[in-house]
Amino acid sequence: LGFIMILSLLIVSSLLHTATAQYYALAVDINQQGTSSNFQCLRQNNYATVFVRSYKPDGSGSVDFNAVPNINMAFQAGLGIEVFMTPNPTSSKSASAQVDEVVSALVNGGISIRSLWIQVTSPINWSGQASNTNFILTAIQRIRARGIRPGVYTSSYDWQQITNNAGGLGNDVMLWYWNVYSSGAGGETAPDFTDFRPFGNWNAADVKQFGQNELICGFTANKDSYPLYSGTLKDKQLPKSGPDNLIYVGSIGM
Question: Which region is the signal sequence (predicted)?
């Protein structure tokens, strides 16, 4: 009887560990043109998702025309796809205009967008904290108005420097935070969220960037991770196209 009880306790303990363990999927984020073989290499090396830059801060801000072909190749390779924009916050173009440019370019390219991330990093590229916060809020409001869920890619340091740790963005705004020791594979942090501390608008995060400027399958890319919950890998993270033949991007946090 004692042996049976011990065995039962061990089984229960194992089940609890399995139920409460957190699993993470790996991703990369890119800002350069890829090839079909690059994206196939990512899939073969167990990357689940690629974050594709779709807007760049060059000039007064412009659509990244590598985005649509990259999205198509990622889709064909069987990768999940997220899109992000790196705006120009000091441009004569409004935040709304920049959002509209990237959304229109993707829609015209046969992409249906469910979420769009705004990059808020590199404080030197921003201006005063009040105007920065207003720019970000305007962009978020415009993303919502287009029927898309907003997300922000930043860090606690960047957010403090750029917005004075602003909150009040709304509970629907997702967070993709970065934390690395240095560039390259040797500067990676753990690909989990144990280092996350609440800041600004967020008490929890959706994605973590844990490595920067690494050579991955022909890309100079950053490494990311995000939690997997029951059913997400099969039902949500794999690429989809609808009956309208559009490619649907943006599943994390949905």
Answer: 1-21
